[in-house]
Design goal:
The protein has helices at about 5, 40-45, 105-110, 195, 235-240; strands spanning about 10-15, 20-30, 35-40, 55-60, 70-75, 80, 80-85, 85-90, 95-100, 135-140, 150-160, 170-175, 185-190, 205-215, 230-235. The chain is mainly beta. It has one domain (about 5-240): Thrombin, subunit H. It has a 7-stranded antiparallel β-sheet with strand order 5-4-1-2-3-9-8. Strands 10-11-12-15-14-13 form a 6-stranded antiparallel barrel. A hairpin with a 2-residue loop joins strand 2 and strand 3. The longest helix is centred in the middle third of the chain and has 5 residues, at about 105-110.
Length: about 240
């Protein structure tokens, strides 16, 4: 059986009508008897870029031993013209995180998936130090184990003061090599003590990877990319999944 962390993460495919638009990353989040797909908000709706899908698709494992068996789940983004996905804003503007409710019947047909919950969110912000190693779990450029439908993991480091909103926005920085397709991936660190460390999913959920950071003044001939990324604080999920 694969690690539970990998089975909590899914590839997110976006569609409009019968056409595939993009592929990104996401993960499952469960609270109060409901399970949600969490990803970047720009994955489900990006008006500026003309990216306006009407549904997304994810593959869920139906067996926790035979990982080659999955079920494709179609997740509508609208019902009667009303958005089903939720997004938040704060004093810094729009937060690039969204959640979409998953159908309970579709979830019941599979049992190999895992989900984060409120207990995985980091409450003690001072416990996360700058430079602390972290993982970004996703599908860079769509790359993954296509036989077992599992994501890959990139090493990352916390690159800004955790708990201090970088430039007044609701995100922190990570130092990691990332690619298109990683948007919506969870940023996690291993739980080393307490009840969470002994649970089925012993990972602290710090953030949701959104995008690479760059400087508009960078000389593209002389200067390399910063190699830094924006990750939105994961505690926004509490507001987004509130009944």
């Amino acid at each position: 059986m694969s690690e539970s962390l990998l089975r909590a993460c899914v590839q997110v495919s976006t569609f409009l009508g019968g056409g595939l638009l993009t592929r990104a990353s996401g993960f499952l989040f469960a609270r109060d008897g409901r399970t949600w797909l969490a990803t970047s908000a720009h994955v489900v709706h990006d008006e500026a870029a003309g990216h306006l899908p009407d549904r997304v698709g994810v593959a869920l494992h139906v067996d926790d031993v035979d990982l080659t068996r999955t079920v494709q789940v179609a997740v509508p983004l609208y019902a009667n013209g009303v958005a089903l996905w939720r997004q938040a804003s704060d004093t810094g503007g729009q937060v690039d995180v969204a959640v979409v409710p998953l159908d309970a019947a579709a979830l019941a047909s599979s049992r190999g998936w895992e989900a984060f919950g409120p207990e995985h969110l980091e409450g003690a912000l001072e416990q996360v130090e700058v430079g602390e190693p972290a993982l970004v779990v996703g599908f860079p450029l769509g790359f993954h184990d296509t036989v077992h439908h599992l994501p890959v993991v990139r090493q990352a480091g916390i690159a800004s003061a955790f708990g201090v909103r970088f430039q007044g926005q609701g995100y922190f920085l990570t130092d990691a090599r990332t690619h298109r397709g990683t948007s919506g991936a969870p940023v996690v660190v291993r739980a080393r003590s307490g009840p969470l460390a002994a649970s089925r999913l012993p990972w602290r959920l710090l953030g949701v990877h959104a995008s690479r950071m760059d400087m508009g003044t960078r000389d593209r001939d002389l200067d390399e990319s910063l190699g830094l990324n924006a990750a939105w604080y994961a505690d926004v999920l509490l507001a987004l999944t509130r009944p």
